[in-house]
Amino acid sequence: MKCLIIAAGQGTRLRALAPSKPLAEVGGRPLIEHVIRSAKAGGASEFVVVSGYEAEPLDAFLADLARRLAVPLEIVRNPEWERPNGLSVLAAAERLPGSFVLLMSDHLFDPRILSGLLEAGAPVDGLTLAADYDIANPRLDIDDATKLQVSEEGRIEGIGKLLTDYNAIDTGIFLATPALLAALRASLAEGGSGSLSEGVQALARAGSAMVHDIGNGWWLDVDDEAAFAKAEESFARQSASPST
């Protein structure tokens, strides 16, 4: 299974810790290394990473990581990295002929979330998004989180950071088909900003955007220094556990 990882943005809220957010080290490893290792353990077999801001050091690190982990990894540059994240997805479109996993370079997660998502599958012309229904989870920055309104049947009805009526949170872990690429292109043609959420919302309107409930699965969006501290604390607990 091919895995696309978006790693093109600036990450301004972690700038004090690292000039390149994907290379910010937590638990002794850069964020993006954690993501790739978890994806590999969860079922991904080859990778495409989209870089942009501070691309050179990230690209060099990824080339070395691919050798160390013995995984196929291709790097794609997004020249429009200052624009919304859907443009990073489209930058890799030629490398995505079939279904693919889509991840964020700063979202840490238990590999079992991805393996469960792959087992759940996705609509033929749509996507399935791993959703966290524990909206009171203390790890969440609820003001910054991308919210979901999900029907009883598991269909996404609404998505966005400003959504006021919601019952789940977007983990940033997707199983998508090329229909997402078409939805993003159509949204841009209609004057959209190019955000990933706009593409998901378009598929939702067509009834082709589903969710996979992650249950009590662990994940964390490491988007600022407060979340970084939570990640460090989590890894410290894992290191201290007798089972590790």
Helix and strand arrangement:
Elements: E1 2-7, E2 25-26, E3 29-30, H1 31-42, E4 46-51, H2 55-69, E5 73-77, H3 86-91, E6 100-104, E7 107-109, H4 111-120, E8 127-132, E9 147-150, E10 156-160, E11 168-176, H5 178-189, H6 196-205, E12 209-213, E13 219-221, H7 225-240
Parallel strand pairs: 1-4, 1-6, 4-5, 8-12
Antiparallel strand pairs: 2-3, 6-11, 7-13, 8-11, 9-10, 9-11
Helix pairs in contact: 1-4, 5-6
Describe the overall structure.
This protein has 244 residues and is α/β, with parallel strands linked by helices. The protein is built from seven helices and 13 strands. It has helices at 31-42, 55-69, 86-91, 111-120, 178-189, 196-205, 225-240, and strands at residues 2-7, 25-26, 29-30, 46-51, 73-77, 100-104, 107-109, 127-132, 147-150, 156-160, 168-176, 209-213, 219-221. The strands form three sheets. Strands 1, 4, 5, 6, 8, 9, 10, 11 and 12 form a nine-stranded mixed beta sheet that branches. Strands 2-3 form a two-stranded antiparallel ribbon. Helix 1 crosses helix 4 (111-120). The chain is globular and about 45 Å long.
Kindly report the average pLDDT value.
Answer: 94
The total of beta strands comes to 13
Major β-sheet annotation: 9 strands, mixed
How many individual helices?
7
Helical coverage, percent range: 25-40%
Q: From N to C, what is the helix and strand string? A: EEEHEHEHEEHEEEEHHEEH
Q: Which of globular, elongated, flat, extended, rod-shaped describes the shape?
A: globular
> What's the Cα radius of gyration?
17 Å
Strand content: 25-35%
Distance separating the two termini: 28 Å
User: Low-confidence segments, ≥5 residues, pLDDT <50?
Assistant: none
Class computed from helices, strands and strand pairing: alpha/beta
